[in-house]
Specification:
- The chain is of the alpha/beta class.
- Helix content is 38%, strand content 27%.
- The protein has helices at residues 14-33, 35-45, 49-53, 58-65, 69-78, 94-106, 121-134, 170-183, 219-227, 232-239, 276-285; strands spanning 2-5, 8-11, 83-88, 111-118, 139-143, 156-162, 184-196, 208-210, 250-254, 258-262, 270-273, 288-299, 307-317.
- β3 (83-88), α6 (94-106) and β4 form a beta-alpha-beta unit.
- α4 packs parallel to α6.
- The relative contact order is 0.15.
Length: 319
């Protein structure tokens, strides 16, 4: 990966992305998303409209997926054969055991292999620790960029992406979609949990800054936000401290409906939102069929809240 820093071309290799940058981004994501609080309340209170409005941990999304007809049909098609699963972007260590339970109870089968891919070395260290403590020989942690997982072509039955599309710039997410298509077996399943941008402009106390407009567009800035920026600290390092003024705004970098929002944590982790139609068009071009889709809307855990459309989607790779 290369980009320009004050006019000089700079290269960031995969190890740098998958370690220092990944750790900074992961810490910011967990700090502002409130996964642990949501999970604790879900276990004590059960699902409620209030909890469904919060930024959902993977366990909540998998619970919602387990009730969908597309997952019931997948379970029947699997017919209790062990499955190979790849989780691209874990976000929270609880996702390992949540996925184990999902495969066991919702899909009525077992895991032959479970590949956990993340760029945050802290998360991967936690997965390795859990693997040792519980003798999870089928779990394989990968500290690597999900655009090129290193997994063999057509080798995985199910790929799970829990809001990965909201955690990286749009061009990177599209490359991860292509990698998903590459590693899935024909007829394999891609499970996608994602928030989209349709309701973002209705969020209270959030200003829209349109950088996608042809008159206002700064090509270097918008290209950076579309291709390789993960947080506001990185953005300011490249383009100056004045970029701090964008924190908390709905910054439109693709027209229509492609936004980045920099969070409240010190590094200002970025979150990206595109329209559902944008995602669906790409999945269709990559050879996916929508088997099931369940949508809801509400505010999330940020301050001030973002109004989001959320979707749990089951995609099938064409034979």
């Amino acid at each position: 990966m290369h980009y320009f820093l004050h006019g000089e071309e700079v290269y960031m290799n995969d190890k740098e992305i998958s370690r220092s940058l990944g750790r900074e981004f992961g810490q910011g994501l967990r700090r502002t998303s409130g996964y642990e609080e949501t999970r604790a309340r879900m276990e004590s209170e059960g699902l409620s409209d209030e909890l469904l409005n919060r930024t959902p941990p993977v366990g909540l999304n998998l619970q919602l997926l387990s009730e969908m007809s597309g997952i019931h049909l997948l379970s029947q098609r699997i017919n209790r054969h062990p499955v190979s699963v790849a989780m691209l972007g874990l976000a929270s260590i609880d996702g390992v055991e949540d996925t184990e339970r999902f495969v066991q109870h919702a899909l009525n089968t077992t895991l032959s292999d479970f590949h956990v891919v993340d760029i945050d070395e802290d998360i991967i260290a936690e997965v390795n620790k859990l693997k040792r403590e519980k003798s999870l020989s089928h779990v394989s942690p990968h500290l690597i960029d999900a655009r090129h997982t290193g997994l063999a072509e057509r080798s995985v039955d199910i790929v799970i992406r829990d809001h990965t599309g909201n955690c990286c710039p749009p061009h990177i997410d599209r490359e991860i979609d292509a990698e998903t298509a590459r590693i899935l077996k024909p007829g394999g399943t891609s499970i996608v949990n994602i928030s989209t941008s349709e309701l973002l402009p209705t969020s209270e106390n959030r200003q829209v800054v349109d950088l996608s407009n042809g008159i206002r567009r700064n090509t270097a800035i918008t290209d950076a936000l579309q291709n390789h920026i993960y947080d506001l600290a990185q953005f300011k390092q490249e383009f100056g401290e004045e970029m701090e003024s964008l924190r908390g705004n709905l910054v439109e970098i693709e027209h229509p409906g492609g936004f980045v929002v920099f969070g409240e944590d010190p590094d200002g982790h970025g979150e990206w939102f595109r329209s559902l139609g944008d995602h669906l068009n790409l999945w269709q071009r990559l050879g996916f069929i929508v088997s099931d889709l369940k949508s809801r809307f509400g505010n999330d855990s940020h301050t001030p809240p973002l109004m989001c459309m959320r979707h749990n989607i089951v995609l099938t790779r064409k034979e």
